[in-house]
Design brief:
This protein is an alpha/beta fold and 407 residues long. 36% of the residues lie in helices and 16% in strands. It is built from 14 helices and 15 strands. The strands form 3 sheets. The protein has a 7-stranded mixed β-sheet, sandwiched between helices. Strands 1-2-3-13 form a 4-stranded mixed β-sheet. It is globular. The two termini are 21 Å apart. Bound molecules: pyridoxal-5'-phosphate. Pyridoxal-5'-phosphate binds next to helix 5.
Length: 407
C-alpha cells in the first residue's frame, strides 16, 4: 500500500453545497465495493475497516445476498403489511429461531427498532406488570447510543446528539454503564425495562466488567423488569458470536437488531421476544409502511441463513484474536488502549500525537477507512470476510502513521 494525497473531489464539494452538514465525512468519494474493499472515483482502493458501522458484516456485495436481492427485485418489492407476501413468514420464522424467541417484529432502521422496543416495554409494563398509566420507567446507560429520534435522544448523554432537540420524552432513568449497584438503586416498582448495548459502540467500543450482564439479568428477574439488549451494532457475528451478550452467558427478554440484518443492501431492523412480551401488540397499535417488505425479507432471510452456518461468527472470533493481538502490540507505540471483542476494536491513540480524526485522515491516505469517535478513539470494524493478511495490512498502516506522528 502506498500513501496518496487525498484531494477534495468535486463530488464532495457538491455534496457539501446541497446537503445539511449533519456529517463530517472523510474526503473519499466511493464508487464501488467488493468484500472488504472499496474503490474511489479516482480508482484508488481502500480497505473498509468501518463496514458501515457494522451494517456490512458480510462485506460489500456478498454474492449470496446480491443474488437474493436480484431474484426478489424481479418478483415483487413492496406490498405493505396490509397483505402478506411469500417472503414474510420464512424470514420471521428463521430470525425468531436464530434469536431463540417466539416472535419478531420487522422494521427498517435501528432507531425504529429501538422505538419499537420502548413502546412494547411500556405496553407490557401497563398491561402485564400492572404499572400505573403514564408512570413507566426505562433504565438506560450513560454513554448510550440507540439512534436519533426525539425520544431516543431524550435519554442520550451526548450533548451533540441531544442539545436543542427538546422538549424531551420523559420516562427514562440514566445510570452509569457497567455499574451493578447503580442499576439496583435505580429500579423502582415502575421500572418496565433496562435497555443496554452489550458493548457500547459509539461510546468507543466499551466492554462492561465481566459479570455485569449476569447481574443485570438477575436484577431484571428479581424485579419483573424486561432486559432489552440493543444488538444493532454488536450483534450478528461482529464479536465472534451471533449476539455479543452470549459472551456473558445471558439471554435478554428482547433483542433489538438492525444494521447487518439488511446485508448492506436495504435497511432492515427487528425486535425479537417471546409471545408474553411482543404479544402485547394488537392490530393498529404499531407499524411501518416498509417494515417487513419483500425485498427486506428476501435479503434478511439470506442474512439469517448465512449466520445459521456459524462461519461468520467463527471467522470473527479467530481473526478477532489476530486483530487484537496486533493492536495490543501497538500499546506504548502511539496507542494507549485497545478494547473490544472479535472483529471490533476501539483504539485509543495518544492525543498528544494525533486526534482520532487526523488519524483517520492519515489512514485514508494510506488506503484504510476507519472512523473516529470521542476525540482520540478510532473504531475498527472490518467486514467479517476480511482476511488475516488484510488485517495485517491495516494494522501496519496504523503503526506507520503513529511512527510518522512521532511515537
Ligand atoms: C447500538 C445502536 N443502536 C441503534 C442505532 C441506530 O440505528 P440507525 O442508524 O439504523 O437508526 C445504532 C446506530 O449506530 C447503534 O449503534
Amino acid at each position: 500500500m502506498t500513501s496518496v494525497d487525498l484531494r477534495t473531489p468535486a463530488e464532495l464539494d457538491e455534496a457539501e453545497r446541497y446537503t445539511a452538514h449533519n456529517y463530517h465525512p472523510l474526503p473519499v468519494v466511493i464508487t464501488e465495493g467488493e468484500g472488504a474493499w472499496v474503490t474511489d472515483v479516482d480508482g484508488r482502493r481502500y480497505l473498509d475497516f468501518l463496514a458501515g458501522y457494522s451494517a456490512l458484516n458480510f462485506g460489500h456485495r456478498h454474492p449470496g445476498l446480491i443474488a437474493a436481492a436480484h431474484a426478489q427485485l424481479d418478483r415483487i418489492t413492496l406490498t405493505s403489511r396490509a397483505f402478506v407476501h411469500d417472503q414474510f413468514a420464512e424470514f420471521c420464522r428463521s430470525l425468531a429461531e436464530l434469536c431463540g424467541k417466539d416472535l419478531v417484529l420487522p422494521m427498517n432502521t435501528g432507531a425504529e427498532a429501538v422505538e419499537t422496543a420502548i413502546k412494547v416495554s411500556r405496553k407490557w409494563g401497563y398491561q402485564v406488570k400492572g404499572v400505573p398509566d403514564g408512570r413507566a420507567e426505562i433504565i438506560v446507560a450513560a454513554g448510550n447510543f440507540h439512534g436519533r429520534t426525539t425520544t431516543i435522544v431524550s435519554f442520550s448523554t451526548d450533548s451533540d446528539a441531544k442539545a436543542d432537540f427538546g422538549p424531551y420524552t420523559p420516562g427514562f432513568v440514566v445510570v452509569p454503564y457497567g455499574d451493578e449497584a447503580a442499576l439496583r438503586e435505580a429500579i423502582t416498582p415502575h421500572t418496565v425495562a433496562v435497555l443496554l448495548e452489550p458493548i457500547q459502540g459509539e461510546a468507543g467500543v466499551l466492554v462492561p466488567p465481566t459479570g455485569y450482564f449476569a447481574a443485570v439479568r438477575a436484577l431484571c428477574d428479581e424485579h419483573n423488569v424486561l432486559m432489552v439488549a440493543d444488538e444493532i451494532q454488536s450483534g450478528l457475528g461482529r464479536t465472534g458470536r451471533t449476539f455479543a451478550i452470549e459472551h456473558e452467558g445471558v439471554v435478554p427478554d428482547m433483542y433489538v437488531l438492525g444494521k447487518a440484518l439488511g446485508g448492506g443492501i436495504v435497511p432492515v431492523s427487528a425486535v425479537a421476544a417471546d409471545r408474553a412480551v411482543l404479544g402485547v401488540l394488537k392490530p393498529g397499535e404499531h407499524g411501518s409502511t416498509f417494515g417487513g417488505n419483500p425485498l427486506a425479507c428476501a435479503v434478511g432471510g439470506e442474512v439469517v441463513r448465512l449466520l445459521a452456518t456459524g462461519d461468520f461468527q467463527r471467522r470473527s472470533a479467530e481473526l478477532g484474536e489476530r486483530l487484537h493481538a496486533r493492536l495490543g502490540a501497538l500499546i506504548g507505540k502511539g496507542v494507549v488502549a485497545v478494547r473490544g471483542r472479535g472483529l471490533w476494536a476501539g483504539v485509543d491513540i495518544d492525543p498528544a500525537l494525533l486526534t482520532g480524526r487526523q488519524a483517520c485522515e492519515r489512514l485514508a491516505e494510506r488506503g484504510v477507512l476507519a472512523k473516529d469517535t470521542h476525540g482520540s478513539t478510532i473504531r475498527l470494524a472490518p467486514p467479517l470476510v476480511v482476511t488475516a493478511e488484510e488485517i495485517d495490512q491495516a494494522v501496519d498502516q496504523l503503526a506507520a502513521i503513529m511512527v510518522e506522528a512521532g511515537a
